[in-house]
Amino acid sequence: MTTPELNRRGLIRRALALAGLGAIAGLGGFAGFRAGLFGSPAAAANATPAATEGPFYPTPQMRMADVDNDLVKVMGLIEEAGGEVITLKGRVLDADGAPREGLRVEIWQCDVHGKYMHPGDDREVDYDTGFQGFGHDITGADGSYSFRTIKPTVYPGRTPHIHVKLFDGERELLTTQFYLAGHPGNADDWLFNRMSDSEKANVSMVFSDGSEGPETTVDIVV
Known about the structure:
This protein is of the alpha/beta class. It is built from four helices and ten strands. Strands 1, 4, 8, 9 and 10 form a five-stranded mixed β-sheet that branches. A five-stranded mixed β-sheet has the order 3-2-5-6-7. The longest helix has 24 residues, at 4-27.
């Protein structure tokens, strides 16, 4: 005679087996089932790698009054920034691919002469006052962000790059850097070469012709 305890164990085994089969069917075989249990390796591979802030992050006191997402045009000035104007855009997503709305994306970079808007960059190089140097955007419902800026130029000792920070309110979620895909300086850049090939791809800017000139899309996954 089967005891209630054995019946209960059998029911549990069947429930677990059915759950496993459902996971396998819905997620694409054993790999999908394993991912459902232990987390997707693809999610980890797609995560945006963190990078150093660097010495020239501009504090609020250093920034221009104009800190919008158009770094090429400073409010109140006629001239625009020197350099090749680009559009940098993308989406901020979580590890499951869902959009993150209402996050603050900050970028900062050196001007066309390789000079940062920061008193610590005390080289005898004139700063391009038509370049905002720092800006921010707030992600939309679809996680989207967008900047109008210049294609990054060479700073002594580094390959061209754009610094990026991501905030949820006052909480910093990520600091990273974006690079020019295929730039010869990448091969000798110590920060760029600390990353794996997949990480490099996740922070590399590949350009295409957009309606307003060169544009690149880089999604941020946190």
